[in-house]
Amino acid sequence: MPSKLAADLLRFTEAVDRLGTPKAVLDTLDKITWQPCRAHVLGASLLPLDFGTTNSLVLGKTVFLHKSTPKGWWEQRMQLSAISPAPGDVAARLALAPFTISEVMKSLEPIGVDRWAVELNLKHGIRDLFGCPIGGRWIFAYWSPKAMQLQPHQRALLFLGASFATTQLQKLAPPFTGRIGKGASLTPRELSVLRWLSLGHRIAEVGEDLGLGEETVRSHIKKAQVKLGTRNSIHAVAQAVRLRLIP
């Protein structure tokens, strides 16, 4: 026999397209998830096209927060993430399955500046987050004042709710051209050079493999750095991987 959570979420998937505002979508899902999972809805965010940027994160346009979100948390997070992306933001882009922040922290063991997101969450009473990457474009999250100990079926059901909620939020979201920005339009040669660098090849080896002179390789690297807004070749390769420009 299906659990109450499963039955309620099934009804949510059938009715969500009739919810006409982001607030209604988030409120309805929160009422379903809080009691059985002790998981509040945090909200959803359309991921910036350029990793590390925050100018396209605008409340009511590309970011939708539930009323349970602690007051002041979002504003402080925006200020700090403009300086250094949180480990959870990286996971949101690369993960193929839902994850808790506790799991991310245990895996990465962040130190120094990389701990700011955890410290900010704790300051506002957010002990844990359950992030659901949706379609490589959105991240939907739940939050809890306690460490989340979700059962496999709960994780699957929360992800189901997040997927349907995000689909409706995308329909309701107003057009926002500010997300597009300038973009990073790398040429095929620039992408090839970065891909070979990512495999550990030196500049001379890259030139030999691609049939290019060393100065030409360096020129492609410098142009790619400018387009990606990065400081050096290592940074450029990492950014290209994050943006899924190279495999």
Give the termini separation: 44 Å
Rg, alpha carbons? 20 Å
Helix fraction, binned, reads: 40-55%
Strand line-up of the largest beta sheet: 2-1-5-4-3
User: Mean pLDDT score, rounded?
Assistant: 90
Q: How many DSSP-defined strands?
A: 5
Strand content: 5-15%
- Judging from the principal axes of the Cα atoms, what is the shape? elongated
Low-pLDDT windows of residues: none
- The H-and-E topology, N to C, reads as HHEEHHEHHEEHHHHH
Main beta sheet: 5 strands, antiparallel
> What's the helix count?
11
Tell me about this structure.
The N and C termini lie far apart (44 Å). This protein is elongated. The longest helix has 21 residues, at 152-172. It is of the alpha+beta class. The mean pLDDT is 90. The chain has eleven helices and five strands; from the N terminus they run H-H-E-E-H-H-E-H-H-E-E-H-H-H-H-H. It has helices spanning 4-15, 22-37, 73-81, 87-94, 101-108, 116-123, 152-172, 188-198, 203-210, 214-228, 233-242; strands at 40-46, 63-65, 99-100, 128-134, 138-144. A five-stranded antiparallel beta sheet has the order 2-1-5-4-3, with helices on both faces.
